Amino acid sequence: MQDKWISVKDRLPENGNGVLVGRFNKRSKFYSIGIDNYMGYGKWWDKDYNEEVWSITHWMPLPEEPKIEMQEVKYGYWHLLDDCANAGVYCSVCNKKVYKTDYANQKVKSKYCPNCGAKMDGGDTV
Ligand SMILES: [Zn+2]
User: Fold this and answer.
1) Residue 17 Cα, ligand 1 centroid: separation in angstroms?
2) From CA 23, how far away is CA 31, in angstroms rounded?
3) 86 C-alpha to ligand 1 centroid (Å)
4) Annotated domain spans of the chain
5) pLDDT, tens digit (0-9, with 9 covering 90-100), for 82-118
């Protein structure tokens, strides 16, 4: 994903697209960041105020909207495997090695698996 400011001198967004913009107010010498729409022909439009905006120097695409997942909670438990090369602490739900054994003695008792998000609630072997 693009995460750097793009100078309007270098490139402009597609017409009609709302993008993150940086505006420099020459009078107050105040820089602000907002979301405006590029209307083509060098014109920018502020939807909130319904007026043309000036002094946009930079823009960048908006980040993706947050995804809200309505997942049912999975329950699992940490599962310690201490033999051979695969030693580690595994998640019982996704079976991924989440921690190395070295860390197992420390507090690995995170309540959620960082891989699949399962809630660690079941029996425990660590
Ligand atoms: Zn998991």
Assistant:
1) 38
2) 6
3) 16
4) 6-61, 73-126
5) 777 778 888 999 999 887 766 555 555 678 888 898 8
